[in-house]
Write the structure tokens for this entry.
Amino acid sequence: MSIVEHSISHALLYPQSIALLGVSDDPGKTGGRPLQFLRNSGYAGKIYPINPNRSQVQGEKAWPSLSALPEVPEHVFILSPTDTVVPAVKESAQLGVKLVTILAAGFSESGEEGVQREKELRDIAASTGIRILGPSSLGVVNPSNGLVLTANAAFAEPGVPKGKLFVASHSGSMIGALVSRGKARGVGFAGLVSVGSEVDLCVGDICLSTLDDPAIEGYVLFLESLRHGDKLKAFALEAARRGKPVIAYKLGRSSAAAEMAATHTGALAGEDDIADAFLKDLGMVRVEMLETLFEVLPLAQGVAKSGLRQKNIGVVATTGGGAAMVVDQLSMRGVTVQSLSDETQRKLKEAQIPGTAGRILDLTLAGTKYEVMKKALQIMLEAPEFDMVVAVVGSSARLHPELAVRPIMEFINADKPLAVMLVPDAPEALSTLTQAGIPCFRTPETCADAIAAVLARRELSESANAIVPDIGDAHALSEAQAYEVLDKLQVPHADYATFPLSADGATLPFDYPVVAKICSAHIPHKTEVGGVVLGIQDPAQLSQAFATLRSNLRQKAPNAMCGQVLIQPMLKGMTEVLVGYRIDPDAGPIIMLAAGGIWAEVMRDRSIRLAPVSVDTAREMIADVKMLKTVTGLRGKPNGDLEALAQAISNLSMLALKPELKVREAEVNPMLVLVEGHGVLAVDALVMQAR
Amino acid sequence: MSIVEHSISHALLYPQSIALLGVSDDPGKTGGRPLQFLRNSGYAGKIYPINPNRSQVQGEKAWPSLSALPEVPEHVFILSPTDTVVPAVKESAQLGVKLVTILAAGFSESGEEGVQREKELRDIAASTGIRILGPSSLGVVNPSNGLVLTANAAFAEPGVPKGKLFVASHSGSMIGALVSRGKARGVGFAGLVSVGSEVDLCVGDICLSTLDDPAIEGYVLFLESLRHGDKLKAFALEAARRGKPVIAYKLGRSSAAAEMAATHTGALAGEDDIADAFLKDLGMVRVEMLETLFEVLPLAQGVAKSGLRQKNIGVVATTGGGAAMVVDQLSMRGVTVQSLSDETQRKLKEAQIPGTAGRILDLTLAGTKYEVMKKALQIMLEAPEFDMVVAVVGSSARLHPELAVRPIMEFINADKPLAVMLVPDAPEALSTLTQAGIPCFRTPETCADAIAAVLARRELSESANAIVPDIGDAHALSEAQAYEVLDKLQVPHADYATFPLSADGATLPFDYPVVAKICSAHIPHKTEVGGVVLGIQDPAQLSQAFATLRSNLRQKAPNAMCGQVLIQPMLKGMTEVLVGYRIDPDAGPIIMLAAGGIWAEVMRDRSIRLAPVSVDTAREMIADVKMLKTVTGLRGKPNGDLEALAQAISNLSMLALKPELKVREAEVNPMLVLVEGHGVLAVDALVMQAR
């Protein structure tokens, strides 16, 4: 059985019949718009206006109720006020309606009563199988069949452009803005959905249901936060399998905006870098700029087709100044432009291509000649040092658009992606290239944003197979128990020995100096109760340490049950890191590597991936953490054992494939990184496990 | 006497007569274009085509030579090949021509012969007073009088829009691209100059000469690198005095692009953060995005007018999603959106303004009503917690542009800057607002870029008065001599004592442990010759240290004359920084604060300003260096003495006001930061001083 539920997408985008419940007689009012818009756009299905108070609305027959209709409508848009919504959904479900869309707000974002209403909606959906879009949904638009089923005022303007992009947006107002901007950029849509507050259908469900729609070639997600990650993941994996790019614009990169999104929708906004790892690890293309949304699809398709693995960009230009802007913007995003190889320069010379070749190939004015540009592009696209080529076209793109784009059009089926950036305002060239499906960009910034985004998109990670166990309450393990979990995962930790708290001393299996720590599942934060004694040099000090721990515990945690003391050698690494695994409520299992100590507080110097990760991916994470460059042999110091760290990260992340361990969270902090060849050692660990 | 040389700007932008030397008969050729363009654009001055080989060009009488003309032309555009340029300039000078523009390339960027040619040009200019634009200049355009004196093919298109912006560009091809983009955005120009390789007239000269032109309200500088900083500084200071904003787009933020700019022009590209400090300290508005160039002027004017000192932004919106995009982009650039105060919320409530108020004021659809938006803007603009207000307007900006902009137009003369971001594509509203001079933005990114740029622009710093002494060769001082310079500046350093290298020991004025260092003007890098012995605990070890230093010096620097050993107490601070002053060849005197130790290598964690700086500015520099957050009382540690550091930075920077010290460079590395109240101490210093 396919995981794609066609019935949802049918009722959503191709309904045969629609009921407009509570439609207003005034087409200027929010509740009156959908009827007017549907009529104006020539929607050919059956429309049933329902208004118990009027026999006519907007000049049409109005029905008194859903049950009075001559047929069961496929899709009901509930336009009536909040307090009428639950009965309306109930009635729809009883009649066998497949999908209702709810315009009203006033659910979980607005207090206890709203939470109760939302629960009722969920119960109805669960018990009857009816699907719900919203609440707070401004509706659905499908330009291919005139389905302008929306209360968004922007759709008063006729002529939503048809095209390849399907949009699912948390923000209802944005679907109108996106249409206007797409129109201006010559980009059209295969559907737009305002998903609202996702009581039932969420972004993932909706997009997944449309995956068999041949009109849809790519997805644009306008996200206020990461919600319903499991559904989004299922969609992203299936979209990747089908080669349909998923482009994401996510708000909340800053805490200020995250806070706004939270207020706006009632959802809790997670941390952006977790969402970022989620999007990229699931192969989505996360762009940073609004207008990149309309420009990146052909490039994302080209990259998916070419199976691009490396990130070496070649640039050919007719204007050095224009090219420098693109190179600059790329570099600022961490994408390096590759210089031309000697061999490529030789070939260009042989072909008598004029211009200067170095970091980029600058053809200057000669590049405006068809033969020169064509030959230059051919040599650049064939050069093994490049995985993608960017052509930066100057004034000819505006003055002679046909001439300027012709050599580029020759490479429409090139094996490598070819992107075009137009330096002047050049609407004709832009339109021709866009219509031909050639990646082309209006500004150096969207060009660089798009390239950086398609390169940052990761191949579907190992995390595709992660299992999210159903963990209810979890409790902390003692440090010794935590090390037992690490042992199962082959994550190295320091030697230790445990002794009763009541002991006066101990014979140790390792040398002094040592550290003595309270070891209890009830005291996860040992230092807060004075539960750690450092730098114990000899048996006498050890005996004193036992006494100190007993005394501190009596004072600061008299109720905590603690029977054990854990003793470890005092160790010092070249540096310290934090390695943490957890099941994030939105993103699922994640693994994090962070700079240790005061670094972590000062800089947000950390790298996150969906778990599990391979050793290769763990190496990428290590490269992400800037602080770890301090142990890469700088200033004559030895290297840290980063290979062992990579192995340990990967091993810890395997918790995502071991649901039987029932671990919700496992944090090694600190993990000591020793000199190369000496490995890494966890010297403290906290594990949260289901009972 | 005014520092503005009107004769340059007159010959440049308003010449009465022009000679086109070497003009081609073919208007399609580069050398034929200026004649065609001037004719097409209706330039009313006298044009003298000069071509020794033809009696006619493009249907006009051609003159055989400059000296054959009936008058001395005000401006000569030399279109002939490189090898004819020097004689042509010489002849022009002899005739009394005020300004020549040189199209040809082939000067200092192309080998020794070119360097020689360039020198000849400089000599002619110096000895005769003729001014030279170029070489490699594509010419000059002034849309107000039809002066399309350019070989840039883009100007084949008629109708360069008239307006307020004057453009000076290192890249000649970009002036065409800028015109087309300005046209598309409804922004016009008061002049455009392709400055080429600046043999004589540079960006600063050219712009300075135009400052009295009432048509010019703002400057756009398209810079490939920072060159002729002294002239740019003179211009920037004078422009600031007159309230004419200077907007800069500078390439080379990345090393790749910097390298390209260098190849392109033959100039050496400096480090971008020095250029950045230069631009911002001189009050220029440095934007990061190409299209911000066309949008930022009214905002920069408003900020200059309001004398904005704080950076608190208030946001009012008709669409929460749209506003979140702006907030997000602002936050990513370090600009925080200020929440509404309780008092402001109370006033809004009192005025019965609907919507939600928190981080921003979201009026939702109600904001499309004139009265609501007007009242809301009024309350926001009057609220003391905001220094600037951004209105984010949704679909109404497209559907009802007149209605949408009307309430905003009411505040055209508000005391605080009011900026507008339009969420949909809304060309009419954009055009109306642009024409009215109201800051308005087409994308959330340019909106945030512009706001961040006008806020990053600094008030004219103390550096306006810096003096750049004419320092020829400079030589290193010994460490002891360097401390004497620090003493003059009141920059604290560790105690020290010097002894002859031949000594066997010494009686110290401070306690052990100490460090012994070779002290010689000839050995600036002591560690490289084994010239430092650390951790000397007692007189016996000190005696041994003298022997070690003698032995190391004999082996590794036998020719270095070294008669002294400098002894200092071994000291340890909470952290170490580098504080450096130098006269940068482009930017002039600068002061730098950088993280010390391995941080400096791993992160480019540093802050640069033009010198001198006040203690206040030094505090800002300290806030810029992330590593210094580690000594701000985190984790219960004491604070570092950052006040003393600020004082020391400011004191060192005063070198820029003490030309009599003839210091070219003074680097304290490391400077120890002690616990609050205990100050800072230089424990090594290197000073380069003119003989």
Summary: Residues 186 and 435 of chain A are 8 Å apart (CA to CA). Confidence is low (pLDDT under 50) at residues 263-269 of chain A. Residues 296-456 of chain A form a domain with the Rossmann fold fold (CATH 3.40.50.261). Residues 111-128 of chain A form the longest helix (18 residues).
